[in-house]
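User: I'm new to structure prediction. If I give you an amino acid sequence, what do you actually give back? Let's try with this one:
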Amino acid sequence: MDHRNQSMVSEFVLLGLFHSLNIQALLFMVFSTLYIIIVSGNIVIVILIITDPHLHYPMYFLLANLSFVDMWLSSNTTPKMITGLLKKSKTISFGGCMCQIFFAQCIAALEMVLLVVMAYDRYVAICKPLHYTTIMSLQRCTGLVVTAWTIGFVHALSQIVFIVQLPFCGPKEIDSFFCDRPLVIKLACTDTRNLNIFMNINCGFVAITSFVLLLISYTYILLTVCKNSKTGASKALSTCTAHITVVVLFFGPCIFLYVWPLSITWIDKFLAVFYSVFTPLLNPIIYTLRNKEMRNAMKRFRSYMYF
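Assistant: Good question. You get back a string of structure tokens that encode the predicted 3D arrangement of the chain. For your 307 residues, that looks like this:
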């Protein structure tokens, strides 16, 4: 690694979302509130699943992992964005910038694989109910989650090892509220076309593969339920529609940010905000508030607290 190249740019300047002070003040209040809801909501879900014996099943074990990941997905970028709204000069150190890129890529890939694992869990529960406890044992669930974390780590590592070695010697302004990988690579004082192609293919492989596996799983679920009963088909369709909504809302921004970038500044900012703020907010709502067992667990928890 060439440390001389890195020392030329010791920090980057984040231009943020808007320059208007009035808009920044409004966004500070909005995003601060949303971030508190995201963190507290996901923490409550994790605590409920850990402490409530009625939720000690594979589906909720996976849901707890998703909530934990969602909390860190938002925490990687949102606090820096919120504090930046109060500052005139928005800077981030070289090391901090590289950490943001690493965790953004790691968490994105991890959540994609985790959503696939959750779809597989539903597939086994609905299509092979008699073998569910055997197939989705605690050991199997733990192995699948560890695999998801490993894929996320390896995916992020395969990108950051190249980015940290790029020569950053001149421009240091990033037109975003966090260190977004494509924007940081553009600042390198060298030809990065081949690196961008590699990065897009790398992200595309994880995103497209996960998306296809998700569609296959939910298709099999719907076909199986439709054959059995109309009542079950209606319920499964409602559940799958909600889950597919989460998938589309999460994968859409990721694809247009990292696989097939549009390179339109305001669209990139909108997608980045949606991906890092609204997706972690919607996941608990869709996966938790629509779930009868989770609602009952919340009632038991409130009764215990008041007692």
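You can read the tokens as a compact description of the fold. Here is one thing that stands out. Confidence is low (pLDDT under 50) at residues 1-7.
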